[in-house]
Each structure stands twice: as structure tokens, then as C-alpha cells.
UniProtKB/TrEMBL annotation:
Segments forming domain CP-type G: 92-260
Source taxonomy: Bacteria, Pseudomonadati, Pseudomonadota, Gammaproteobacteria, Vibrionales
The record's free-text note on cofactor binding: Binds 1 zinc ion per subunit.
Residue stretches making up the EngC GTPase domain: 101-258
Designated name of the protein: Small ribosomal subunit biogenesis GTPase RsgA
Annotated function: One of several proteins that assist in the late maturation steps of the functional core of the 30S ribosomal subunit. Helps release RbfA from mature subunits. May play a role in the assembly of ribosomal proteins into the subunit. Circularly permuted GTPase that catalyzes slow GTP hydrolysis, GTPase activity is stimulated by the 30S ribosomal subunit.
PANTHER family: SMALL RIBOSOMAL SUBUNIT BIOGENESIS GTPASE RSGA (PTHR32120:SF10)
Gene Ontology terms: cellular component: cytoplasm
Cofactor dependency: Zn(2+)
Residues engaged in binding GTP: T140, K141, R142, D143, G202, S203, S204, G205, V206, G207, K208, S209, T210
Amino acid sequence: MTPFKTLSQLGWQPVFQQQLTLEDYENTRIARIAEHHRSHYLLINETGTESLEIHASFPSMTVGDWILIDDDGHFIRQLDRQSLFARKGAGTKVIEQLIAANIDTAFVVCALDHDFNLNRIERYLAMCADAFVEPVVVLTKRDLAENSLDADGNAFDLDETIRSVEALAPFLAVEAVNALDEHTANALSPWLKAGKTLVVMGSSGVGKSTLVNTLLGDSVQTTGGIRESDSKGRHTTTARSLHCLPSGAVLLDTPGMRELKIFDSEDGLNTLFAEIKELESQCRFSDCQHGNEPGCAIRAALETGNIDERRLSNYLKLQNEDARNSATMAQKRAKDKTFTKMVNTIQSSNRHKKKGF
């Protein structure tokens, strides 16, 4: 983690300043979570770094969150977030895993190799839309792609690939880079503004750590290779951490995510797939499944080529996944709330018994 000097270099913005009271100014210190470990958070502030032991009474927090602590380093409260990235826990676990908080721009990294997948990029873009975070798709390994052949044995068409990504969302920024090239920072400079917080997200082996090192101008993150057979990468970044870029921007690196299960992302999906959502409203039946129902506006658009079958298939897949995971998470929250209420009732009853009531 690179050193910081002022709150603005930590990514402090007016939206957080407005949450402070006069008492906060007089009796607390401002800090940002830089790393999240099993038993503690590593905090950064204007005076340096310090550790905060995690307690069950704390709210759920993650790297990027702003908090207030007292002079002894005790937790006071968490400031309201500007944005949040979260996913459903990997596997069958019914948990919400926080990824990053208070992000301005997300670098969605995808390699120009076997890893390249429009469906996966759309998954990240839906999360960005739901969090109201500006996405920038960064296509790495440009140097290798320009000298390679596609599946049909033809020269790889970089321009066509970039256009296919740009078509995923209006005004979507897409940059193809060689992550090892120091000029990469120049291509991404419009988003590396002082005081802004960026997050780098993507699968393992796509070049995230290499990109981070190049932007930092230093080998802060360990890098690793990929298997040539399937372009699958190894986890080289194992924990999220904040870094200060030479431009004054704050960069948050994340471990590679082999599973990115969305939930509570209906608004993001509706924004990303706005053209399909608009067609849904034109179907004859409100519960149309877009199969063989008469008067299906989406099927009609498919037949005329107005929408892409791959994009529709991915939308329906993500929509079903979001509905399923959202319902599961809602059930867990209700169960946790009931359990907490029961514990509080028992504790209250025990206190009354001790007082002789």
C-alpha cells in the first residue's frame, strides 16, 4: 500500500463532508478502510495507518468505506456510502460478500485471449449500472492479440472486437492496452483524476496486477502467468488494497473473481438492457416468457434482427439469476432479523430478572 498525505488524496469528497457534525469535528478522526483481514481492518488517515479490531457489533464494512474513530482508535460510526459493489458468496453459501465501497470509476479488465467474453463483461456492467459507477472496459494483452489468429485462422480484428464491446452500452468507454507498456497510463489518464477512487475488477489471469503495477510505476502486486490451453489464470492478488497513483487518484485492486453472482441488481439490468426492457413492455401478455407466446415483441425483434440473440439470452440468464439470488438473500435477511430480535428479547428478559422485576 502506498502512502497518503491528505484526506483528498484518500478520495475524500463533499458527499462525506456533509455527513459530519460539529461534535464529529471536535471529538473524532476520519479514516478509510484500506485493507480487510479476517480479524481486523487496516485504516489509513492523514497521520498514517492503524489497525482496527473487528467486532460483531460493527456494521458490514469493506475496503473503501469511510469511518469515524475516536482519539484512542475506537470505532464510532460508518459514513453513508456513495456506492457499493457486492456479490452473492461463491458456491452455495447464502452470504453477501462486499467487494468495494465509494468507487467513482470501475476498470473492468478482460484479456484479448480465451478469456474474452461479452457475457461476462455485461455481468460487470450490470453491477456498475446498479451502483451508479462509471465503467471503463480495459482490454489487456493487445500486443499478443494483434499478432494472433482468430478461431477461423484469420488475422485477429482488434477494431471489430472493440466495437463489439462498445455496443454493449451507450457511451461505454473501451481501451485496448498492453498492461506492461508504461504508456498505458496515458490511455487511461482521463479517469485517473486526483481525488477519484478507481477499482480494478476482472477474472484471474487477465492482467489486473500487471495493470496496477504499471499505473503505479512500481511492482506492488505480484503477477502470475496463465495456462496456455484455456487462458485460465492464477490468483496473484489475494486481498483488496488501496494505492495512491502518481496522478493523485486512489486505486483499489481486487482478487480475481471466478464467480460473480449478482443479486438485487434489477435496476442495473434494466439500465444495461434498456432496449430489451422497452420491448418487454410491448409484448401482448405482461407475463410473456418470450418463447412461443403470440404477440411477443422480443421474438419479433429477434426475427427482424433488431436485437442480438446472444444479448437476449444473457439478459434472461442474468434476470433469472438475480431474481433467484435476491429471493434467497431476502429470506436470509428475514431469518437473521428474526434471530436478532429473539436474542434481544432474551437478553432484555435476563436483565429484568437480575433487577428483580
